[in-house]
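Quick one, tokens below. Sequence please?
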């Protein structure tokens, strides 16, 4: 019996590792959990942003669900939606959010998500992906949507306010489209 358990454990470990490695190879984004200080910074910035009481918040690339759970608890009247493409982190997120009525996690590519009803977006991605995310947000968000970028910022956009991270980069709040227009 113990030999079967050992083989199943090894097989499950290999499948999980391959799943995560394949997702990183395809997306270019590792599944990194937000630190507690980063979560605190995101929540503080969103509270300062004065979201509507029944806000709709999306976490793009929600990974293991750390931020989705924290947002659902910090904003109990909000509807918090995580979007994750990597199968194993998605499953863990589903387990973590199972008892939260105002949180959900979808297994999909966020580039195919309907973000039009969003009042706020959060993301912790990688620099190479940020220009494409910027285009996605330009096409899908209503003006005034709050966008939080953790560590990797949107170039050419005006930051409304930021909090400097301890070990990684800043956590920045944008009011989308966050363009600074200069009259000629």
């Amino acid at each position: 019996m113990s030999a079967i358990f050992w083989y199943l454990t090894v097989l499950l470990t290999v499948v999980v590792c391959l799943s995560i490695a394949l997702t990183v190879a395809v997306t270019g984004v590792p599944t990194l959990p937000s630190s507690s200080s980063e979560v605190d910074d995101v929540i503080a910035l969103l509270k300062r942003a004065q979201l509507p009481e029944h806000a709709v918040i999306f976490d793009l690339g929600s990974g293991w669900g750390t931020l989705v759970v924290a947002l659902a608890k910090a904003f109990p009247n909000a509807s918090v939606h995580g979007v994750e493409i990597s199968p194993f982190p998605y499953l863990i997120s589903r387990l973590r959010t199972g008892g939260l009525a105002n949180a959900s996690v979808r297994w999909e590519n966020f580039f195919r998500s309907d973000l039009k009803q969003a009042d706020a977006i959060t993301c912790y991605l990688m620099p190479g992906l940020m220009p494409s995310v910027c285009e996605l947000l330009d096409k899908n968000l209503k003006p005034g949507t709050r966008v939080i970028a953790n560590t990797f910022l949107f170039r050419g956009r005006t930051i409304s306010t930021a909090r400097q991270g301890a070990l990684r980069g800043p956590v920045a709040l944008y009011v989308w489209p966050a363009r600074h227009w200069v009259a000629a």
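The chain is about 40% helix and 20% strand. The mean pLDDT is 89.
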